[in-house]
Amino acid sequence: MIRRAIRNLREAHDSFRQTQQIYMVLVAVLIGLLGGLAAVGFRLLIRLLNEVFWRNDQYSLEYIAGLPFWWKIAAPAVGGLIVGLITYYFAREARGHGVPEVMEAVVIKGGRIRPRVVLAKLIASGVSIGSGGSVGREGPIVQIGSALGSTIGQWLKIDERRLRTLVGCGAAAGIAATFNAPVAGALFAVEIILGDFGVAQFSPIVIASVSGTVVSQYFLGDFPAFRVPSYSLVHVNELFAYAGLGLLAGFVALAFIRMLYGFEDLFDRLKIYQPFKGLLGGALLGLIGIWLPHVFGVGYEAINEAINGSMIWQLMLLLVAFKIIAVSLTIGSGGSGGIFAPSLFIGAMLGGAMGTVMHATWPMATASPGAYALVGMGAVLAGATHAPITAILIIFELTNDYKIILPLMISCIIATLLATRLQRASIYTLKLLRRGIDISRARVINLLQPVAVRDVMLFDMVAVRAGDGLESIITKFVDHPGGTLFVTGDENILEGVIPPDTILPVMANAELLNQLVIAEDIMDRGVFPWVSPSDSLADVIKLLGTYRGEVPVLEDGRLTGVVRPKDVIERYNSEVFKRDMVPGMVAALESTPESTAMPTLGNSVVASVPVSAHFVGRTIRDLQIRTKFGVSVLMVRRTLDDGREQAVTVPEPDYAFRHGDVMLVLGPQEELRRLRRGVPRSRRRDGTTSPAGQGA
After folding, report:
1. What DSSP state is assigned to residue 682?
2. Which of 20, 106, 166, 385 is the most exposed place for a label (fewest CB within 10 A)?
3. Which of 440, 437, 431, 439 minimizes the C-alpha distance to 97?
4. How far apart are CA 287 and CA 539, in angstroms?
5. How far from 38 is each of 42, 164, 216, 394, 648, CA to CA, in Å?
6. How many angstroms separate the first and last alpha carbons of the chain?
7. DSSP per residue over 37-53, as a string?
8. CA-CA distance, 649 to 290, in Å (whole number)?
9. What is the pLDDT of residues 164-217, one digit of tens each?
10. Alpha helices in 387-469, H assignment, sequence order
11. Which range, of 74-83, 330-339, 431-440, 475-484, averages the lowest pLDDT?
């Protein structure tokens, strides 16, 4: 009976998988609920650990100030030691603020995160925050929720493209549950974690974000993270003050980023046992906390004081500097926690201090200091994360007041523009850059990794001989303007290249140099890049970072083809289309005849094509469908023995066709007709096609 129930469950799961949108929605709801529960559980864990370390489950600034000085040093020091032991021996991904590790998993590892990260991050960050570590709970919740999404996706054997979306679902649910802000949670996931606003992944992420918020509201109530009075723009000239706040926030965010990683480098240079670094960092934090207990923990109580205008500006300015130092000590020494709440803390203090001075100087023309504290929260967060949309929406959802949106937008955008101008990397991506991972390039490379050079290479190169004169060289260049000339020898062995930059200066004195210059005199030897037909287009993208010309394709030293940057870009656009738009088009095509084609980009269409008899038993790799027919196989629908249809989305190159299979393909109309007839083609340099064997 149990076996039958398991079999029925598997069959129901397989049936749901065929309805891609519905299936992803159901999984997103599950991840959202679990992410919301994780956020609630994490808050309860922090309260429990507050009781352990401070003898009070919800300690206040007044309570901490009354404790003996040694307690303020011992609690974060012991907490730092425990966190160091957890991260050193159990899961090193649990160190730091967590979000860069999630971004790396999405871009480099196909969305795969080790399941143990859930438990390690939960305990390590709980201990770090509960013992007074100067970090936030949002970063850990993002990593915990993302790890849950990844674990569920791996368990359900979901493909990489959708697995990345599930990671974003977990992140969105965590942020939404923490701030009671579902829109900001969804935008955080697509703007920071995925870095992509594609339609296909946005719907499940929104649903997960809403689900996480529902769970949070059920257990914790429907109230925002901060107690925010109503604020508004008092005078139009006040916008200049908010613009100035944006500039200050950009500089402060930059200082925060540099000090954080400066302290990481400082602790990395200490040649001591790793957990002892956490002990040292916690003790130094405790020394600051003796006089400024505001720096302990998440800091929401101090933020509320700044928002409500009950803190003097001198203290707020002092807290801007010492909170940056406190966070840098905690994370730099190996602590576990986020930088989201610290960014809000620093921004609230900066904005509150500026607002106090502005309001004292022009009381009738400026809002109260709390309004500037709110805007400062968003501005510093935007400058640090380079994510202005998320920052604007979080503050907007906290206030639920449209009157603050204009100052908020001005400050956040100015802070982001300044921060990105002075430093390309955000507080998240800089951590990855220091590991040698350029996240923006990695997203492009990851998309092109499965595509081979042979799929886009051209076979008729513009070649000259080493002894050819200048007149012949110029003629070839005029016939193919802007192209690279390849110098070949016997058996088409590549000896050098002549880039356009080399030819143009020579052409100015062509008559004088005609008898003196030959190809051998001006060609580059051995300094040009090259690839083989089996290499990935990701390798070509890396070469194009430093080399702007056409890339030769060599086999055993012989020139067999060329890859143009234009073709690489076109292929990238095609892969983006496949990733983002295909799921929706699949649903539309399922209700249309097989002969119906749907237009997409350029002259390409998407259509269903039945597999011809001579394809059966052969793999996509054997048939070289991309190279010989000029189309991409997006999906294969096959009929199982029991009559049910099974969709194989983005099949692997080793997928073998069977009788009754139907391909969903992307390509020009003429190529689709050729594919239906089973007549391959060859690709010429000008982009035209011809039957196989007739190309140059």
Report:
1. E
2. 20
3. 431
4. 51
5. 6, 19, 10, 20, 33
6. 66
7. HHHHHHHHHHHHHHHHH
8. 59
9. 889 999 999 999 998 888 888 998 998 888 876 655 567 899 999 999 999 999
10. 388-399, 405-422, 429-433, 439-448
11. 475-484
DSSP state of 613: G
For residue 508, count CB atoms less than 10 angstroms from its CB and return exposed for 0-12, middle for 13-18, buried for 19 or more: exposed
Residue ranges with strand state E in 440-520 = 463-465, 485-488, 494-498
Q: How far apart are CA 232 and CA 246, in angstroms?
A: 17
Q: Alpha-carbon distance 641 to 658, whole Å?
A: 12
Query: Among 342, 360, 357, which Cα is nearest to 245's?
Result: 357
DSSP H helical segments within 548-652, as ranges? Answer: 565-590, 620-623, 625-629
Contact of 682 with 689, CB cutoff 8 Å? yes
The H or E element containing residue 607 is strand 604-610
Contact (CB, 8 A) for 151 and 118: yes
The pLDDT confidence band at residue 695, using thresholds 50, 70 and 90, is: very low
Helix axes 99-107, 138-155, angle to 10 degrees: 30
Q: Coil, helix or strand for 524? A: strand
Measured between alpha carbons, how far is residue 135 from residues 45, 146, 299, 526 in Å? 15, 19, 8, 52
Neighbour-count burial for 423-450, b at 16+ CB within 10 Å, e otherwise? bebbbbbbbbeeeebbbeebbbbbbbee
How far is residue 415's CA from residue 343's CA, in Å, rounded to a whole number?
A: 13
Nearest to 137 by CA among 348, 395, 337: 337
Confirm if 569 and 482 have CB atoms less than 8 A apart.
no
Helices (H) and strands (E) in the chain, counts: 29, 12
Backbone angles phi, psi at 272, to 5 degrees: -130, 165
State which H helix or E strand residue 282 sits in: helix 274-291
Tens-place pLDDT, residues 595-605: 455 555 556 77
3-state secondary structure 99-118: HHHHHHHHHCCCCCCCCHHH
Domains within the chain, CATH numbers bracketed: 2-220 (1.10.3080.10), 238-437 (1.10.3080.10), 453-563 (3.10.580.10), 581-691 (3.30.70.1450)
Q: Between 20-54 and 160-179, two packed helices, what is the crossing angle to 10 degrees?
A: 50
Buried b (16+ CB within 10 A) or exposed e, 215-234: bbeeebeeeebbebeebebb
**In the predicted model, is pLDDT for residue 657 greater than 80?**
yes
Residue 354 — pLDDT band, cuts 50, 70, 90? very high
Q: What is the pLDDT of residue 618?
A: 85
Mean pLDDT of 357-384: 92
DSSP state of 90: T
